[in-house]
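Example with several molecule types.
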Amino acid sequence: MTIPSHPTLLMTGAAGGLGQAMRQRLKANCQVLRLSDIGAMAPAQAGEEVVQADLADADAVKALVAGCQAIVHFGGVSTEQPWGPILQANIIGAYNLYEAARLHGVKRVVFASSNHVMGFYRQSEVVDALSPPRPDGLYGLSKAFGEDLSRLYFDRYGIETACVRIGSSFPEPRDRRMLASWMSYDDLHRLITACLTTPVLGHSIIYGTSDNSVSWYDNHLARHIGYRPQDSADVFREAIYARTPEPDLNDPAVQFQGGGFVKIGPL
Ligand code: 15L
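Resulting structure tokens for the full complex:
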């Protein structure tokens, strides 16, 4: 059962894949779920407010955050892209969001970070919250910026943030890599709920995956969040092995945790 924790909860990135998957689920966490995106969203239902806003527009973000007690921040670019859109949405956008949170007294944020902050670790390594970031591209770098930004706003202003380094959250794992990185939508909702309800969150880094037997992530430094995954990619393992070729161990996409992201773009 989900414990409602905040009267008004803002979720950015509502038109994206995870935003759409969490929209219904997060209604149980609050009385009013305020939904925002730069793109069009489905009209507001009971218990929802829908506000179209560009994260790069500081005034629009200030208005968006007014009256909220907590934020689930999925907004911004969620794949490797050129510097221009990443700068606007993920760097300037994250700054605008934290400034608005400070101005309006919001004290808790769940920040959708990414496994791509750590993408240049090898698939034979295990990382924890203290492992130095090794982003695999501009997207991963922008998420590392968001994590550092949130730490500054915690140290200076006491705004608590969970930086959730989400692995691969889709209906099912799509390939062999995702047998390690997959997170079910229900587990993602469990993790967000844990971040919103744990008594003391502080500034925390947690890896967002289900209970997968193969894992590159060690969450022992995030036990205070109280996240217990209940799903596992293991149930898909046989089918995925049957339909995917033997991995080429010389391929960087197979060697590194970031998978294909380590090869994308003009870097
Ligand atoms: C991410 O951060 C992306 O947002 C998502 O689209 C997936 O590609 C995921 O990482 C992944 O690494 O599988």
